Amino acid sequence: MKVLIVEDDPLHRSYLHEAVNAALPECDTVIEAENGTIGEKLAREHKSAHIVMDLQMASRNGIEAARTIWKERPETRILFWSNYSDEAYVRGVSRIVPDGAAYGYVLKSASDERLKLALRSIFVESQCVVDREVRGLQQRSLGQTNGFTDSEYEILVDIALGLTDRAIAGRRGLSLRSVQNRLQQLYDKLDVYQAASDDNDDGRFNLRARAITIAFLRKLLNYSALERAEAELQEWLDGK
Amino acid sequence: MKVLIVEDDPLHRSYLHEAVNAALPECDTVIEAENGTIGEKLAREHKSAHIVMDLQMASRNGIEAARTIWKERPETRILFWSNYSDEAYVRGVSRIVPDGAAYGYVLKSASDERLKLALRSIFVESQCVVDREVRGLQQRSLGQTNGFTDSEYEILVDIALGLTDRAIAGRRGLSLRSVQNRLQQLYDKLDVYQAASDDNDDGRFNLRARAITIAFLRKLLNYSALERAEAELQEWLDGK
DNA sequence: GAACAAGCTGCGGGTTTACGCAAGACGGCG
DNA sequence: CGCCGTCTTGCGTAAACCCGCAGCTTGTTC
């Protein structure tokens, strides 16, 4: 068995290397990549079937890299190993997992034991392993309980990109009013409202901008999500 | 000499520990804290004069912690050791450094040698050491060359928080029109206009929201800056 | 002290947002 | 089939935003 490690922090990389050796005696080769771009390249060259991947890398982040790898070989098993459980990451990952693929999401704060168990479960047993904390987010995010619908999330991203209502309408094939409807839905769920309770009128918010801020503070959005969305937007703009 | 390490990643923490031991033979005690809150507490108890501090920690980030520590003992020497050189961080740090304090800003990607040199320079020689890459930002940021004025940055933060023009005017003691003037200045510098040049009218941006996005993508803003700004805002709101 | 740049402010108007109201459209369910 | 909930769309309005124009107050420079 060969394992590919994609991780930009040298300390974490060597820690992972050791963990893989310890957890998977049947693994004879470990390859390392220090960013997503190199990771993609090595995965292609070696036809890697077992990958441990960091999210949040400078050159090309884990989600991007995983997407292209899975596009080429959907049966690849990928364990995401991340510092954070931002909803933006979780949502980003669940959106690109191919049907039936084995993957995992483990936090860097997890114990050695957890990491090794996850390595075996995914790479040997082909099971999905998702950290409890992450799992919670995932369910809320995909189910409709308390979380955000895809269309709500979509419009959140659109205003975060700085599009006007009209531009969004054009992009998503909706009428102006529908876009505004969804916006109100979003404001509602994000609870962008307050300040009216006081008699003090000064503290009024610009709903649109405030929604973005709150989404950031709640980690519904993060840098990497913005970056991806911006790239998609540019693509769309170029395609007319 | 005693050294306090404030860093939430265990791997990085032990790496730092070793680096300190190697670079500073005169150091007899090393204390470790795993987040900003504990860091503050230990610094107070031990009256630490030499601190290595990570930015970006979950519980209380490095800038917050450093601020309160410096408020209590401004002669404390702090070496910031960070993964990133976001302008938001750099600006945040330079704003809280007391006059004449010795401090440093070294990236985690720097070599062992660089780190050890910085440790000696700051803790033994009381010199300021700032990574070249960071230094560049700092100068552009504080000088006016190409960078953003304090007032421009201020209003950027205000709209990023989601305040209305009127609310900003109230908070900053300006007229409505002045606020809008500054906004235009900001839009200008951020180059939020691009799409207007095209004949294609579809890709119109909402300037206010777009400015926030661009600031994020350029790392003028990041999560930690938002978080701090939000805290200040709440404080201000409470104070009426 | 005159000239000048830079910033604050009021006025006015064109555009975009936020949102209530109400009329279809679509899909499930008894 | 008729009832009902969810989603879409148009109309209309009040508020907020973007911004050109022009009068003022500063601080700077020659």
Please, could you describe this protein's structure?
Two copies of one chain form a homodimer. By secondary structure, chain A is an alpha/beta fold. Chain A has two domains: 141 residues, Rossmann fold, CATH 3.40.50.2300; 89 residues, Arc Repressor Mutant, subunit A, CATH 1.10.10. The first copy, chain A, is 55% helix and 12% strand. Chain A contains eleven helices and six strands. In chain A, strands 2-1-3-4-5-6 form a six-stranded parallel sheet. Chain A starts with a strand and ends with a helix. The mean pLDDT of chain A is 89. Chains A and B meet through helix 1, helix 7, helix 8, helix 10 and helix 11 of A and helix 1, helix 7, helix 8, helix 10 and helix 11 of B. Chain B binds a DNA duplex (30 and 30 nucleotides) through helix 9.
Give the SSE layout.
Two copies of one chain form a homodimer.
Chain A: E1 2-6, H1 10-23, E2 29-33, H2 36-46, E3 50-54, H3 62-72, E4 77-82, H4 87-96, E5 103-107, H5 112-123, E6 129-130, H6 132-142, H7 150-161, H8 165-172, H9 176-190, H10 207-217, H11 223-238
Parallel strand pairs in A: 1-2, 1-3, 3-4, 4-5, 5-6
Helix pairs in contact in A: 1-5, 2-3, 3-4, 4-6, 7-9, 7-11, 8-9, 9-10
The structure holds a DNA duplex (30 and 30 nucleotides).
